[in-house]
Amino acid sequence: MTAELNLTRDPAHLRHGSNIGQPLTRTDGTLKVTGKARYAADNHPPGMVYAVIATSCIARGRVTALDVAAAKRHPGVIDVMTPAHKPELAEDPDAKGNPFAFRMELLQSDEVRYANQAIAVVIAETLEAATEGAALLSPRYQVEIARVGLDAGEAYAPPVVGIGNPAEVRHGDIDAGLAAASKRIDATYETPAQYHNAMEPHAVVAVWDGDRLFLDTPSQGMAMAQMRIGGLFGVPPGNIHINSPFLGGGFGSKGLVSGPQVLGIMAAKLVGRPVKLVLRRSQMYGPVGHRPQTRQRIRIGTGDDGLLTALDHEARVTTSSFDDFYEPAADASHTLYASPAIRTAHEAVRVDTGTPLFMRAPGEATGSIARESAIDEAAFACGIDPLEFRLKNYAEVEPTTGKPFSSKALRQCYAKAAERFGWARRPLQPRQMRDENGFLVGWGMGTATFPALMFQGNARAVIRADGRGVMESGAHDMGQGAWTALTQISADALALDLGQISFLSGTSDLPDAGIAGGSAHTATVGAAIHNAGAAVIAKLAELATSDERSPLFGAGNAGVVARAGRLHRRDDDARNESYAEILARAGVAEVEASGTGAADPAAQSQYAMHAHGAVFAEVKVDPELGQIRATRLVGAFAAGRIINPLMVQSQLRGGMIWGLSFALHEEAVMDKRSGRILNANLAEYHVPVNADVPPMEVITVDEHDPHVNPLGIKGVGEIGITGSAGAVANAVFHATGIRVRNFPIKIEEVV
Ligand code: MOS
User: Fold this and answer.
1) What is the mean pLDDT of residues 641-652?
2) Residue 618's beta-bridge partner residues?
3) CB-ligand 1 contact for 249 (6 Å cutoff)
4) Domain of life of the organism in this record (predicted)?
5) Is-contact 156 347, C-beta < 8 A?
6) Which domains does the chain have, with CATH numbers?
7) Is the pLDDT of residue 2 over 80?
8) Is the CB–ligand 1 distance for residue 457 below 6 Å?
9) Which site from 146, 290, 429, 548 is most exposed, i.e. has the minimal number of CB atoms within 10 Å?
10) Is 718 annotated in the active site?
11) What average pLDDT does this structure show over 686-713?
């Protein structure tokens, strides 16, 4: 595989080398499958001790007593960190510096805000001693009644939702649209709290050296973590060195540094030794974020022709009693379907849980299952096939803004997935199909969409005397294969073979790559890498073209093309020179340059940028037992340029499985009396296991998008959930004729 980089900066003229687009297996795959990948908790610096968090078993009230003496008497226990005995912090953990500085529970008081909140930290020579010490604390509480569920308190309008979107958006006149309709749907859907459950729990190994801090801890955003930790401890962010080479999953829960991670750092400061703190699975149900509960009312009006006259999407979401994260559940209704009137609105209710957080497709996932169900209901009310109904109401421009789409190959997604699935044979009426065992068979579909976002990230490129290249960027690989894709982009950016470059990543000592979130990491860091590569090759070209001894002399920057480690004159390919030759003659050891990837405000103001997809699902329902099995899933997605088809397939499959999980499995059940989550473990918090996952097919539809970013990447991390959850739910309706509006759909609701 060789690579070519065209030095012309105009994106319309960009060509790419052959690394982008290859189905490479993970560059870190061997390390992972041989157990050599070192995750945060695998680190054991000399002199390290163990910290274990004692958590609250009440959801609201105060801790009135802790038997610290009993814990300290236990052999091996070194110290017990409590609100009365802890290192001073430079900043109030409840202060709000910016929208991403979420409030944290760092033992600042005896107040309990939610079950599983940290109330003390025991530090000991062994994990066993620390665990036993935590048990010996025998806390006593003053208990207040926990506020639980969507009706826990008075609803209020949040200031903004998501990462700063308006809580209410109006386009056209909803009342007039509904009044003019000949058919109306008015339906209310509920989605449960979900918890991220990354395979690797949050963990930290913290080592202080004076006012420098060395951390092994998983992070989806190391620079933001440095800022937050630096603020809390009063040290410059640059003094904080984070290693986060492998994350073991994140799904948003490692996007912001969490309270337990900071408690591990505090413990290390308190005892003056390296400390390891790892959350138990159950302890992840509280302090590290979750997807909040939603209740969504959707009203749809249609004319006799099946065209929408109004789409009104209202969402009530839960948030914590002490902070402000609001799931933007209704927002995805801005983009998909054309309607003269669209309104989205949010209200919130404060409950006694940890603060919710971004969780894979935050807002889009919760909103999509409700909206795609409602669209299915509207199509059925009109007597129109659900695919035909969606095509009738296809948005040619973004309905709420009127902007053209930067690209939108959704029609092709519908067509390809429907064809593959065999959708044309679907009977319109439900309960018409049975399999050979007498099980009811249903077919449903949903439309997928997720915004094509860009954050800001940086990269540094080096070409060395031997002609090899290095690309550096502190990017984050949650397990999705980002490093692999970024390595491919790096090789093309430097016009070198994969074997001739090193891609360095996974620590905060490298250029800030921004945050791995919003399905935007490959696009953002990829653009930074692309720009850094172009800049370093421009420097190399400058060295050559300004030197009369070079065969490239006088060619000028635009007259040179980089290919396979050589620069060629554009007008005479035979006149060329290797990177190593250019550097040797110039007498320099290396050339280096930096690049940044960021959103283009001009393009963003002009275009609506979204990835799209269509998912078709088959389910079988046992008519006597109500057992539901998904038996087939077909998805087609258009998400701009595909960097690595293997990784992309895997991401989309993972998303679709999460969609299936959303529809049929996943739910955190809270005890209404205690405010504790009853199934805070992977045995009872159901996610699909292999036996639940049906044969799946993922189709990617070619899409060239010259506007989203230099490489035309839209991102694939989250979109897979969004169409799939609704498709499965709609298939259950089609199998049974029963419309379930509370998710996940349960056996007892379909018999
Ligand atoms: Mo994602 S929920 O933006 O990690």
Assistant:
1) 97
2) 443, 632
3) no
4) Bacteria
5) yes
6) 4-20+456-598 (3.30.365.10), 40-145+196-284 (3.30.365.10), 364-371+390-453+601-751 (3.30.365.10)
7) no
8) no
9) 548
10) yes
11) 96
